Amino acid sequence: MKKEDTVMLISAEGFEFVIDKKAAMVSQTIRNMLTSPGGFSETEHGKVTFPEISTTILEKICQYFYWSLQYASGKETEFHIEPELTLELMMAANYLHT
Amino acid sequence: MGGACSRKRDQQANDANINRGVSGRYTKSGSSKWLGGSFSRASMDSSQGKQRCPTLMDLCIYKIREDINKYGTFSMLPRDITQQIFDDLVCSQCLTDTLLEAFRDCALQDLNLGEYPGVDDSWLDVVSSQGSSLLSLDLSGSDVTDSGITYLKDCKSLQALNLNYCDQISDKGLEQVYGLSNLTTLSFKRNSSITAKGISSLSGLIKMVKLDMERCPRIHGGLAHLKGLEKLEMLNVNCCNCITDADMKAISGLTRLKSLQIASSKVTDNGVVFLRDLKNLSLLNMEACPVTAACLESLSGKFLGALQYLNISRCDLKDNGCENFSKMQSLKVLNLGFNDISGAILVHLKGLINLESLNLDSCRIKDEGILYLAGLTRLKFLELSDTEVGSSALRHLSGLVNLENLNLSFTVVTDGGLRKLSGLSSLKSLNLDARQITDAGIAALTSLTGLMHLDLFGARITDSGTNYLRAFKKLRSLEICGGGLTDAGVKNIKDLTSLTLLNLSQNSLLTDKSLESISGLTQLVSLNMSNSRVTSAGLRHLKSLKHLKSLTLESCKVTANDIKLLQSTDLPQLVNFRPE
């Protein structure tokens, strides 16, 4: 996998998730960051830090990104959400426009 | 963000209503009218093809709905997220008075509880806890009473309040609205308790823009209290048969008014004179008012230069006085249906070049006069049903290239005249429900490939005529009920896969074989095969019609139980069926 095809998403605790750029672009917010001309300084290096999103939630979000790509390609499985994560996940989803 | 389901904040009369004006009369297709909303939704689904991938937000909302009992409060969430949870619970009808408690103090902006089951005074405490965040509240169709309305006094920011069909609200309830000085929209349709005294409570609501009091039979004299509402743009007192000329005098100074609806009131020509100063009036609905052509003087461009929509159907118009129509240059929509007027008045319409919709339903129109419509090239909608218009008039319509909707039902138009319509390439809807129309007439129309709605209800169409229907690939609705079809004819329509409504009733020769031909029309929402030889054994062919909501098989060898079985095993979407 070429480096420019991936992005690094960093959680509040500093945990790094390296995922396909294509997957990250499922989020409208991240897409805007990566594609807006001039850009956000941190995205030039393919890194985005989310100081308000915990590691657990960011992991879940990355799972969703890949699930969403699968869904779009016709594999319609169920996406499991743990009840205790729902509210926090929802706030992150709202922020990420996902 | 905000609007739950397909609910709209304001539910004012729309242009389509004005266009149609009298559409409720056609009982034969009336049965499908209630499906109107679902049709558009069904077609949307099909155009999208497969289902859209749910967003993470959607998934979280579903999850919350699933576990809703575990949440005591949502007040720690940002308002826009809580709003989405609330809207989802309303839309899925999962909200109860107990669950409502979780939304206390959530600073919600929109509570669209219109027609929601079980809403009563006990809900209003949580409603009012939204305080000054609440901008719009829809309680229509609820059991809320006057004492429930007292809770709203803390909702000072409220802009839109809908109390339609709340029959337990009276003048006392409106008194509580008095302090809601930010209200711009207020609606309390069909209330038989509210009187002029209640309306006097509204006199200080000077930000009011839209006020809807349709079907309030006791508000006579109340409009005098609206004099100070200088921002009022829309006023609806349709079907308030207590409204008289004096009430028109009371509103004569509301010069910002853009839309005034006074249908089925007692307003006469003398009352219409008071409307002369309403320079901004764009829409006027006077259907079924005792006015004559003499009132047209007050409505002409000299006074009401902005008038675009005029419904003056079912009034006492005669030819004499209709010359004033020529001074209504700004008119786009004119409904003259069910008046005692002849084709002689059409000469006065020939200069109304902005006209897009003209309704002459059941007027004494013959072929004479139709030539004056030839220059109205912006016409999109022309209603000539139940007139004596015949084939020789149709050549004057052949140049109306923007015409989208033409109704020639119950006219004396014959097959020979229809070829004059063959160039009307914008036509989407054509009604030829007339006994003298036959296969030959359809043969002349095959160039109209944009047709979406074709009504041949009483026309004498046989199997050979159905061959020509193949040209109409975009057809969404089709009615052929003249009795001349057999299974062979129905086979010819099996490729019209865009059909959502199909009425083949009264064709007594049709058998289960026809159902087999129909089984591929998977977009069908409504199907009527009454008075045919269809049997319960044929119902299995309908299993593929997953969008079907209405199925009518009266006077067939099919029982209600047969259909219920089909509904439970294969067609859960079915909501309306006969026999029942």
From TrEMBL, chain A:
Answer whether the UniProt record assigns the keyword Protein transport to this protein.
no
Q: What is its main location?
A: nucleus
Give start and end of each SKP1 component POZ domain.
6-66
What pathway does the UniProt record associate with this protein?
Protein modification; protein ubiquitination
Q: Which GO terms describe its biological process?
A: jasmonic acid mediated signaling pathway; ubiquitin-dependent protein catabolic process
State the compartments where it is located. Answer: Nucleus
| Entries under InterPro entries matching the protein | ELC1, SKP1-like, SKP1/BTB/POZ_sf, Skp1_comp_POZ
What keywords would UniProt list here? Nucleus
Gene Ontology cellular component list: nucleus
- Keyword Nucleus attributed: yes
Q: Which CDD domains does the record cross-reference, listed alphabetically?
A: BTB_POZ_EloC
Q: Which domain of life is it from?
A: Eukaryota
Any single Pfam family the record assigns to this protein: Skp1_POZ
- Write out the similarity annotation: Belongs to the SKP1 family.
* Name used for this protein in its record: Elongin-C
Organism, scientific name: Salvia splendens (Scarlet sage)
Automatic annotation (TrEMBL), chain B:
Source domain of life: Eukaryota
Q: Region Disordered: which residues? A: 1-33
Q: Which UniProt keywords apply?
A: Repeat
Secretion signal: which residues? Answer: none
Its recorded name reads Disease resistance R13L4/SHOC-2-like LRR domain-containing protein
Which Pfam families does the entry link to? Answer: LRR_14 (PF23598), LRR_6 (PF13516), LRR_8 (PF13855)
Q: Which residues form the Disease resistance R13L4/SHOC-2-like LRR domain?
A: 156-346
Q: InterPro entries annotated for this entry?
A: Leu-rich_rpt, Leu-rich_rpt_Cys-con_subtyp, LRR_dom_sf, LRR_R13L4/SHOC2-like
